[in-house]
Amino acid sequence: MTAWWRALRARGWRSLVVTGALFGTMLISVAGAWAVREAWIEHQHSVETALDEYARYAARAFAEQVTESGILLRSQVNAVTSLPADVHPLTLAEYAAAAGAVLDGRLGKERDPGRGYFRLDLRTGRYEALGAAADIPRMRDTLPHLARDHAKRHDTYYAVVFSNVRAPGNVITVTTASQRNRDGSQVAVFGYLTSRSVLVRTLPGTVPRRASMLLPPSQVGTRWVYGADTIPDTLVALQRIDEDGTEVFHTPQRYTSDARGEFVFRGLTSTKTVATLHPDLVRELRAEYLHPERQRLQLVLPVLALLLAGAGTLHLRRERELQQARRDFVASVSHELRTPLAQIRMFSETLQLRRERDDEERMRWLGVIGREARRLGDLVENILLFSHIDAARVRLEPERTDIGELVEEVVEAYVPVAEQRQMRLVADAPSRIYALVDPRALRQVVVNLLDNALKYGPSGQTVSLEVERCTLPEGPCVRLFVSDQGPGVPRADRARLWQPFVRLGGAGHNAGGSGIGLSVVRSLVEQHGGTVAVEDAPGGGARFVVVIPLGAGMPTPATTAEMRAAVAPNRAAEQTHVPS
User: Fold this and answer.
1) Which residues sit opposite 257 in a β-bridge?
2) Is the pTM of this model over 0.85?
C-alpha cells in the first residue's frame, strides 16, 4: 500500500492531470460543437432579420430624402423674398413668377388646382391674391389671417410657416415668408399654395434613388448586377401610401420578395413608404452569408478548445479589471456628487431658517449654492456625455461659435472655484475667432480641462487659458492651450491618460474626479475633426493643447446665401417680363 501510494505520488498525479485536461478538452469540444449548431441557427435568423432591416433602412432613407427635398423646395421658393425691400419692393406678380418657376422646375408643370399666391402689405394692410388663393372661397377668408399670424410670430430675416388647410375636395399646403428692409422690419408677407396630392405624387419622383443612398454601403457594389438592363436604382422597389391607404407613388419596377420593409413618417399627416429588395439581391446575400462551409467550423473546435480556454481566462481577467474600474468609478462619482449636494443642502436649509447675519452673508451663501450647483451640473453632463460616447450615440449640432467668448464664459464661471482653492485664472481669449462647432460639446471640453488643471495643481498656482488662430495643411484652425503649474504628466503615462477610468497620481492621490473627463475630451475633440495632446508647460506643469478646424467641409451658414444666389437669377429674368 505504501509502495503504491508512493508510485501514485511519483507518477500517477501527472497522468491524472493529463487525463483531466483531455477529458475537459473533450467536454469543451462537445459543448462548442453544440454552441456552433445553435449559433448557426441564430445566424440564419440574423441574416433573415438583416434583410428585413436593409429593406426598412431603404424605406426610411427614401422617406427622409423626400422630406429633405420638400424642405429644400420651400426654402428655394421663399428665398425669393430674401432681397431687402428697400432695395427692391417685391410685387405679387414678381413673386408669383419667380416662385412658380421654382415650383415648375421641381414638381413639373402638371396642372395644380391648388396653386396660388398671395401678398399682404403690412404697411397699408392691402391683401392681394392670385390663382387658388383668390378662387377658393375658404382661402380668401383664411389666408389673410395666416399672413397676419406669420407677421406676429416670426422675427427672423425670412421665415416659413407651413400649414395644411382643407379646401373642397383637396388639402392645400400653405407656405409663407416675409420680405424685410435691411433694418429687419417687415414690409410684406408673401405666400404660395400647392395641392398636397400633387406634392406627395410628384415630389418623390424628383428624389435621387441611388442604391448607395438607400442601402448600407457594405452591401452595394458592382457585383450586384442582374441583367444587362439593370441599374443600381432597380435594386429597391419603392411605394408610398397615404394615410387613407391610397397609393400615391411607386417606382416603375415592382418586385415580389420576402425582404420587405416599411417606414411611417408621422408629421401633419402620416405617409407610409414601402421598400422591397430585388429578389436576386436577396438570393445573393443569402448565398454569401449562409454558405455551407461556415458549418465546417465544428471540425476545428477540438484544436481551438484550448485557445478558447486561454482566451476565456484572459477575458475573465479583463472582466475583473473592468469590474474593479467600475466600482472605483462609482465610488469616485458618489463622492463627487455627495460633496456639492451636501453644500447645497446645508446652505439652503440655513437660508430657510434665516440664520444669515446680513445681506452680504446671504449673498455669499447663495453664491456657494450657485457654484456647487454648476459643479454638480458639469459632473452630470460629463457622465451623460461619457455614456453617450460609450454607446456611440453622440450627435454633434455644429453652429457658428465665437471660441473666445465661449472660453471667457467658462473662465468667469470657474473664478469662484479657483478663489476657493487659492488659485488664479488667467485667460487670453480674443473674440471674433469663429468656428463651426457644437458649443455645448466644446464647453464641456474646456470645463474638463480647466477642472483637471485646478484639481491636480498646487495651491497658489496660476492656471492660464490661451486661444489663437492657426493653420493646418487642411485649412485654418483654432488652438486652445490650458496650462497649470502642477507636477505635470510623465511621458510614460501620456498614452493611457486618455483612457476611461484612468487616474494618475497613485492610490493615495486625493484630487478626486471620476476618471472619465479626459476620455470625454478626446472623444469630443476627435468628433470635431481635431486633436488634443498633453505636453510640458514652459514654466513647469502640464499644458493641454486642443486644435480644432474652423469648419472646412462642414455645412455653414453660407449654404443659405448660395441657395438664394441660385434662385436670384431666375427672379431677375422673370422681372424683365413682369410689370412692376
Assistant:
1) none
2) no
Say if residue 118 is in the same domain as residue 251: yes
- Length of the chain equals 580
What does the pLDDT read at residue 483? 92
Question: pLDDT per residue over 397-432, tens digit each?
Answer: 889 999 999 999 888 888 888 888 889 999 998 988
Do residues 115 and 240 both lie within one domain? yes
> Is residue 577 a part of any domain in this protein?
no
Q: Domain residues for 401?
A: 336-504+512-549
Residue 531's pLDDT band, with cuts at 50, 70 and 90, is very high
Domain count for the chain, please give it: 3
Contact partners, residue 298, CB within 8 Å, separation at least 6: 32, 33, 36, 37
Encoded amino acid at 422, one letter: Q
191 & 42 share domain: no
Measured in degrees and rounded to the nearest 5, phi and psi for residue 208 equal -65, 135
pLDDT digits (tens, 9 = 90+) for 170-218: 778 888 888 888 888 888 999 999 888 888 888 887 776 655 556 666 6
**Domain shared by 38 and 178, yes or no:** no
Beta strand ranges found along 7-126 (DSSP E): 116-121
Rounded Cα distance, 547 and 199, in Å? 46
What is the distance between the alpha carbons of residues 464 and 477, in angstroms, rounded to a whole number?
A: 20
Task: Identify whether 89 is part of a domain.
Answer: yes
- Bridge partners for 261 per DSSP: 275
User: Do 106 and 252 lie in a common domain?
Assistant: yes
Higher pLDDT, 381 or 476: 476
Do 280 and 401 share a structural domain? no
Contact 146, 191 (CB under 8 A): yes
Co-location of 279 and 296 in the same domain: no
Rounded mean pLDDT of 131-160? 73
- In sequence order, the 6+-apart residues with CB closer than 8 A to the CB of 304 are 32
